[in-house]
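In the present case, backbone shapes were mapped to integers, as reproduced here:
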Amino acid sequence: MTRTTQRTTRITALAAAAAFAALPVALTAGPAAAQTSDSGTTYMATLNPLNHAGGSGMLMLQLTGDQAVISEDVHGLAATFMNAPYPHVQHIHIGAAGTCPDASADKNGDGVVSTTEGAPSYGGIGTTLGVSGDTSPAAGTDVKIAPGGADFHYSRTVTLDSKTVDSIKAGKAVIVVHGLDPATLSARAQGEPSDLVPALPLAATSPALCGPLQVSQMSMVPNGGVNTGGGGTSGTRDAWLFAAGAVMAATAGGALVLRRRISVEK
């Protein structure tokens, strides 16, 4: 190896080492900057299916004081009920473990985790997420204000009570979307009344999607839509891309300095 080649290798290695040394700082600082801002703290819930539901969804909530700017997209739920869009009542649940139940929560063995059976995991209703009107627990089973259909986008700014705000900040709040397709349930469950509104079938009020609210690395999209492009790891991914770019820039810069030195020496 020539003396010039040795110098090239040493400078390139030093430049790369310096850039990678800054990587932990980039990975630590990036998400923290994205989580909070003057406009509040952003939380996200990935909504996973319960009780044989086949849907999915994502909800983002930007909390500033007691004001919550909410944006949600849901797909693949029960589509119709009595020739109309299936109403999916939904809520921020609070006051329990802050988790979603698994099949073991089905205590009566009918194959469905009812709303009350799931309560030890996600708690009671803190805020009703209706499309208009009352957002208190009293509106929790009002199908007239529920978003409806198999797929829907929900966007609303609501005022939260202190218990809901405290639960969100403590990581104990859970988003639950209700309403199952009866055809997916056992014959026994299809014949059972709702544990919340006995005039309705069990399927109408049982949980279909569930997801704990957690501090997000993403911020709200300006028009209120959900930023689905990067997923929950977008902040970390961007930090890695930034660090990788720093490595390449530092390495290229070191090589450029070396080429200039070599040119002068020649």
User: Anything to note?
Assistant: DSSP finds seven helices and twelve strands in the chain. Confidence is low (pLDDT under 50) at residues 2-36, 221-266.
